[in-house]
Write a structure and sequence with these properties.
Number of strands: 18
Mean pLDDT: 95
Number of helices: 13
Low-confidence stretches: none
CATH architecture of the largest domain: 3-Layer(bba) Sandwich
Bound molecules: flavin-adenine dinucleotide
CATH class of the largest domain: Alpha Beta
């Protein structure tokens, strides 16, 4: 049997950060994980480079979270992107920012982020209990009893940092929801997010692997307008890439309800409709004998240009000199708003994050403590908050982890 002040379930980024802040004033802290090593998913982040946060100024940073912003405001003001960078740099891991504002370790290695976190935790005597899966939690009087196959852990406070349900091969299989529910919490239906989308437009499926550097995606649902811009790639059954992953956050609710979503792809987001029309006019005038795909290849990969021309009758077997003013405008309009019918999101196994989780209405946003079960805290993706690509999801882990750890330590100190 292990007796401790604070038990942190889950040694992902949120749990590691929480354990550091739980232990830094000498509270006895144990961190438990199913995996044999901490931070398995962390090592996969940012393609192995770990995009730890984003450089946006704090007020704009908070807005990026949309519906989740209200709950995260305090945590982000308490320990935001600046403090995250300071934290790692103070611990000898220099951080660099790329042209999009994405922040990575200078070494471009997620392993270094993990090493910093585990080294600090160990320096504060956090006990790592790896290869141990918590199966059951209950509260008896003022203690939590955590049951693992080979051990029982008694703790005065518990931090649930078990992540969501996406990429379950890294250990996050939804256990945290089960524990939170058993202790009285409501779980907002978990759905895959930041995930590639399946489309009904089968002609696009033949474009698997074709990538576009910058695409705009827009749609309007129930009077709300949504847009994202960024790279996109065609997949075997739809579309993926950063612009699509970000956009998926807005439509997972519709898709989960079995409703298809009509979206529009702006294939040339950096030019206006009139500019494209003028560009087309000039190109057609200069190269009247050229086929339309040749003209369109000026704006996009040739394979996509060919596919578009095969699919729209008014473009089939047409030379650019034969394209009349009306059809030229129609083509420009299509390039600015190619209609796509999204029928589903790809599975949880492929989703970068989970949308949904422990309801924020039952967690104190200033401490991350449960409003229902004293001594119970939450950190990271297990909570019903999420952000877009760009370091915003790891920032949730750092900010909520710091609050959960700090306040779990205060809670256990007050019990003494
Ligand atoms: C491929 C990929 C790339 C990503 N890249 C980025 C990026 O660059 N930037 C960014 O901001 N976000 C990124 N994300 C999202 C980010 O990784 C997650 O938001 C983050 O890992 C969530 O951290 P967490 O600590 O809450 O949960 P997790 O990292 O999922 O950790 C939870 C831990 O809890 C453990 N656990 C679960 N149940 C139990 C149990 N019953 N007993 C014991 N242990 C348990 C699991 O084994 C796991 O180790 C990426 C995600 C993926 C999948």
């Amino acid at each position: 049997m292990i007796e401790t002040d604070i038990a942190v379930i889950g040694a992902g980024p949120a749990g590691l950060m929480a354990s550091i802040y739980a232990a830094h004033k000498s509270a006895k802290t144990v961190i438990i994980d199913t995996n044999t090593t901490p931070g398995l998913k962390l090592l996969r982040t940012g393609g192995g480079r770990c995009n730890i946060t984003h450089s946006l100024p704090i007020n704009e940073f908070i807005k990026v979270y949309g519906d989740s912003a209200k709950f995260l405001r305090f945590a982000l003001h308490d320990f935001g992107p600046d403090k995250t960078i300071e934290f790692f740099e103070k611990n000898a891991l220099k951080i660099q920012t790329d042209e999009h504002g994405f922040c990575y370790p200078y070494t471009n290695r997620a392993t270094d982020v993990k090493r910093v976190l585990t080294d600090i935790a160990e320096s504060f005597r956090v006990k790592f209990q790896m290869a141990s899966k918590i199966e059951h939690i209950e509260r008896e009087k003022r203690l939590f009893i955590l049951q693992a196959p080979k051990e029982v852990i008694l703790a005065k406070a518990v931090i649930i940092a078990t992540g969501g349900m996406s990429w379950p091969q890294t250990g996050s299989n939804g256990d945290g929801y089960k524990f939170a529910k058993a202790l009285g919490h409501t779980i907002v239906n978990p759905k895959p997010a930041l995930v590639p989308l399946k489309t009904a437009d089968t002609w696009m499926h033949k474009l698997t692997g074709v990538a576009i550097d910058r695409v705009g995606i827009r749609a309007e649902f129930e009077d709300k307008k949504f847009t994202t811009v960024g790279p996109m790639i065609f997949t075997d059954n739809g579309i993926g890439g950063p612009a699509v992953l970000d956009f998926s956050r807005y439509i997972t609710d519709y898709l989960a309800a079995g409703k298809p979503a009509m979206i529009k792809l702006d294939l040339i987001p950096d030019r206006t409709l009139d500019q494209i029309d003028n560009n087309l006019t000039d190109l057609c005038r200069m190269h009247p004998k050229k086929e339309i795909p040749g003209i369109l290849s000026e704006f996009m990969p040739r394979k996509l240009a060919l596919s578009i021309c095969e699919n729209f009758d008014y473009l089939k077997a047409t030379l650019s000199g034969q394209l009349n003013k009306q059809n030229r405008r129609k083509l420009a309009e299509m390039l600015k708003g190619l209609q796509v019918k999204v029928i589903a999101a790809r599975s949880m196994n492929e989703a970068t994050i989970t949308r949904g989780g422990v309801s924020t209405s039952e967690i104190d946003d200033k401490t991350m403590q449960s409003k229902i079960c004293p001594g119970l805290f939450f950190a990271g993706e297990v909570i019903d908050v999420d952000g877009p690509c760009g370091g915003f999801n790891l920032q949730i882990c750092w900010s909520t982890g710091v609050l959960a750890g700090t306040n779990a330590q205060k809670y256990t100190t007050a019990l003494k």
